[in-house]
Specification:
The protein has six helices and 13 strands. By secondary structure, it is of the alpha/beta class.
Length: 210
């Protein structure tokens, strides 16, 4: 059986080489590209993201990422966002007084974490649903976070094209969304590529779902 191909969207943001290395360890063939044809043909797509919400959205727009992601989801082809790559999948982000429209795959606002000290850097546990596929076998593990902003509220959703999203939470000052699984669309606020064996297993679980 050949290894699945995963494209890491190379649009100028994100720790793409570390993500690529982790995916290879997890069993994927990896391409770093923003080529539309390669994105559509791949078995999986990773959307990384580091930095400010507004800057990442501008970089994504420059390569037509919204359309590429939509086309994959319509075809039920797997997409995963990482860190700010999770955040931009929500309705909007508010940072430093700047409000920016997101990709609006999920309802919600990215805002500053309610914590006495920011950024939230380091290892943290998560609270995953019992039927999570991403966290199968690693629900009690710790994952590596680096962020000051997050999604503090996720309304319960039902119906639509896919089953209701499975939301994983973490806590730092207050609860925030640590991961979402929603049909072909998944995302993590933490960095799997920096989370040791647990992160590799999460990526392996994702790849094996193709």
């Amino acid at each position: 059986m050949s290894s699945p191909t995963v494209v890491v969207l190379d649009y100028g943001s994100g720790n793409v080489h570390s993500v690529a290395q982790a995916l290879e360890v997890a069993g994927a063939k990896v391409k770093l590209t923003a080529d539309r044809s390669a994105v559509q043909q791949a078995d999986g797509l990773i959307v990384p993201g580091v930095g400010a919400f507004d800057a990442v959205m501008k970089q994504l727009a420059a390569v037509g990422a919204h359309q590429m992601i939509e086309q994959r989801l319509v075809a039920t082809k797997p997409v995963m966002g990482i860190c700010v790559g999770l955040q931009v999948l929500f309705d909007r982000g508010v940072e430093h007084g700047i409000e920016t429209e997101g990709l609006a795959q999920w309802p919600g606002v990215v805002e500053k974490l309610e914590a006495p000290m920011l950024p939230h850097i380091g290892w943290n546990t998560v609270e995953a649903p019992g039927d999570s596929s991403l966290f199968q076998g690693i629900a009690g593990e710790r994952f590596y976070f680096v962020h000051s902003y997050g999604v503090l509220d996720f309304p319960e959703l039902g119906g639509g094209a896919f089953a209701a999203p499975k939301v994983t939470w973490a806590e730092y000052g207050s609860k925030f969304v640590a991961a979402v699984e929603n049909g072909p669309l998944s995302a993590t606020q933490f960095h799997p590529e920096k989370s040791g064996h647990a992160g590799i297993q999460l990526l392996t679980n994702w790849i094996q779902s193709f």
